[in-house]
Design brief:
The complex is a heterotrimer of chains A (about 230), B (about 120) and C (about 260). Chain A is of the alpha/beta class and about 230 residues long. Chain A is built from 9 helices and 9 strands. Chain A has a single domain, classed as Rossmann fold, CATH 3.40.50.300. Chain A is about 35% helix and about 25% strand. In chain A, the strands form 2 sheets. Chain A has a 6-stranded mixed sheet with strand order 5-6-7-3-8-9, with helices on both faces. In chain A, strands 2-1-4 form a 3-stranded antiparallel sheet, with helices on one face. The longest helix of chain A has 14 residues. With about 120 residues, chain B is mainly α. A two-stranded antiparallel ribbon of chain B has the order 1-2. In chain B, a hairpin with a 3-residue loop joins strand 1 and strand 2. Chain C is mainly α. Chain C starts with a helix and ends in a 5-residue tail after the last helix. Chain C has one domain. The chains are: A alpha/beta (about 230), B mainly alpha (about 120), C mainly alpha (about 260). At the A-C interface, helix 2 and helix 3 of A face helix 1 and helix 3 of C.
Chain lengths: ~230, ~120, ~260
């Protein structure tokens, strides 16, 4: 089976600034991958390229062997690093919106999760607290049976209890053949759920290894290694 | 409740130790069925593939065996369980003795102190 | 998918749009009942002049306002849905950029055309009172002669032109926003700048066409009718707008297909 994600000499330039330069990378199916790097290292740029929100300056990016297009969008479930929903909509309306457009969206699964969270579906998104809104967004994204989940900073702005809930939700909902790509700088929180990590440094992969490889080889956690690699 | 794992050793090793510990201490009885990889992973809040690897290692040691369709079970080979238990106890004693030694107690003194407890 | 996109576009603006236009029709009805019907066209000319000037100015203001609001709603919807933070969802739906574009063209056209029709209906409500019709009938022969055709026919032509104009307005709006997206920053500002530059260029071209067609050559003007003059001007403008709209569409099509870069 071909890799779920392949980048070949992928480059993205903003003006004269290289957000990504000649990035070559491939992700296998059935694993949870951490995309780690300090701010400005190109994490969000890579993620936006995967989702077709940016047009590459050079090189190729392939999802399931295809450049980003409606067919790849069917199998990629994306959680952006910002609030991306129309806040005037009610929770129930956004559910039917997802149901309308995504064949692999399970309203049943989403409803169950919302029930557990005790979120009133009649509420408008603008009336939810920041943490609740982030949970709703994650519920929507994880209720799709996708091949590739791309989560940009899913635990960035929430309290530790919500963090645990989010990690549990990710672990519970992805299927064995799916790949989850999580970008974050809160490494220690998610280290245990990762198969492997990719360190991005100035738009280049600085390291691509499994968590246990790192621990065996360096005798320290990914978090500690990260602090060393990116020491200011 | 996530399991207590430390930062600098491979995660699968620590998962193995934890499950081994649960088997020896009787959380799981001989012949019991283990929860699925997914449930164990969720319980430990770790990656399912890592849990899978830990269980595969345990299988190799014989403490756990899998039946093709019905899942994984704890061995009911009592002598293997005893051996494992003894090995674990030996390890604890050895590390305890080392610590005591580092504090300046020799073997005899340590044993005397233990008996007085 | 196209149908679903259009459905959600219509849903998201529908309520405000309907509210706005119901208000407009209500104001027109009120204007007719409380103002137009009270006019006595047999009164001396001077006493009629002031109220007529007032109501026609108010009516024009209202029409411009409601048309502007509709345009603004469509502009905001296009920008927010595709290039604001909601764009992060829109562009990750299993839909192509061209489908997004056509959904916006179709839903926008529906709003603009309904807006034009409602404005026409409101105007009809204002001017079809019995007293107005009677007053018009007494001068209709002269009017027809000056216009070169009966007034209703002339009005119908105007309506058809306006509806055709909806498309070029719409494409122009989308064109400006899309071209604004090509800039690295300040994209809304850039879109506005594009709008003013394009409008300015169009004005100049129209002015040139008018000059070439001898519109300002009053001395040479034959004793034509208003409609003949209007159409003589409108035909080249229509061709110009059509060409411009096609060029703008091709540009927008290209940007939506190949040049998407959300901030």
């Amino acid at each position: 089976m071909e890799p779920i994600l392949e980048c070949h000499e992928l480059t993205k330039k903003y003006g004269n600034y290289f957000a990504l330069s000649n990035l070559t990378l491939s992700l296998e199916r059935g694993q949870i991958v951490g995309l780690l790097g300090p701010n400005g290292s190109g994490k969000t740029t890579l993620i936006k390229l995967i989702n077709g929100l940016l047009t590459p300056t050079g090189g190729q990016i392939m999802i399931n062997g295809l450049a980003p297009c409606p067919d790849t969008k069917k199998i990629v479930s994306y959680l952006p690093d910002r609030n991306f929903l129309n806040e005037h909509m009610r929770v129930s309306q956004i559910l039917s919106y997802y149901e309308d457009f995504y064949d692999n969206f399970s309203t049943e699964r989403a409803s169950k999760m919302l029930e557990t969270l005790e979120i009133d579906r009649r509420l408008r998104l603008q009336d939810l607290s920041k943490g609740t809104l982030e949970k709703v967004q994650l519920v929507l994204v994880m209720s799709r049976a996708a091949d590739l989940y791309v989560l940009d900073e899913p635990i960035g702005g929430v309290d530790p209890a919500a963090r645990d809930y989010i990690l549990q939700t990710i672990l519970t909902n992805y299927n064995e053949n799916a790949t989850v790509l999580i970008s974050t700088h809160l490494i220690s929180d998610i280290e245990n759920i990762l198969d492997r990590v990719i360190f991005l440094k100035n738009g280049q992969p600085a390291l691509n290894a499994s968590v246990d490889e790192i621990r065996t080889k360096y005798g320290k956690s990914v978090d500690a290694l990260f602090r060393e690699v990116f020491k200011c | 409740m996530p399991w207590n794992l430390d930062d600098n050793r491979p995660i699968y090793l620590q998962l193995m130790e934890k499950i081994q510990h649960d088997i020896i201490s009787g959380v799981y009885r001989p012949g019991d069925k283990l929860p699925s990889v997914r449930d164990l992973a969720l319980d430990a809040a770790v990656n399912p593939n890592t849990m899978q690897k830990a269980l595969a290692e345990l299988e190799r040691s014989g403490l756990v065996y899998s039946q093709r369709t019905s899942g994984r079970f704890i061995t009911d080979d009592q002598s293997l369980l005893n051996r494992t238990r003894d090995a674990l106890a030996g390890e604890h004693i050895r590390s305890f003795m080392e610590q005591m030694n580092a504090l300046g107690f020799d073997k005899e003194t340590t044993l005397e102190m233990i008996q007085k407890l | 998918m196209l149908g679903k996109l259009i459905k959600h576009d219509l849903k998201s603006l529908g309520r405000l749009f309907i509210l706005l236009h119901v208000c407009f029709v209500a104001i027109c009805l009120a204007g007719r009942v409380f103002f137009m019907n009270q006019l006595d066209f047999n009164a001396p000319d001077m006493s009629l002049l002031t109220p007529l000037i007032i109501i026609s100015s108010l009516a024009i203001l209202l029409v411009v306002a409601i048309n502007f609001c509709t345009g603004l709603m469509i502009t905001f919807r296009f920008y927010r849905n595709l290039f604001g933070r909601e764009g992060y969802l829109s562009w990750t739906l299993p839909v192509s950029g061209i489908q997004h574009l056509w959904a916006k063209i179709i839903s926008g056209s529906i709003f603009l055309i309904v807006d034009t029709l409602v404005i026409a209906a409101g105007t009809l409500i204002l001017v079809t009172g019995r007293n107005v019709v009677e007053a018009y009938n007494s001068v209709s022969a002269e009017f027809t002669q000056v216009l070169g055709m009966p007034l209703p026919m002339f009005a119908l032509y105007m309506l058809l032109f306006s509806i055709a104009g909806c498309f070029s307005t719409l494409i122009m709006i989308y064109f400006c926003i899309c071209v604004g997206q090509l800039f690295p920053g300040h994209r809304v500002l850039c879109a506005l700048a594009v709008y003013f530059i394009v409008s300015f260029v169009i004005q100049i071209i129209v002015f040139l066409i008018m000059t070439v067609c001898g519109f300002f050559d009053f001395a040479a003007q034959p004793a034509g009718t208003v409609s003949v003059d209007m159409f003589r001007l409108m035909a080249p403008s229509a061709v110009l707008m059509a060409v411009l709209t096609v060029i703008q569409y091709i540009t927008v099509h290209y940007i939506m297909k190949r040049k998407i870069n959300l901030i």
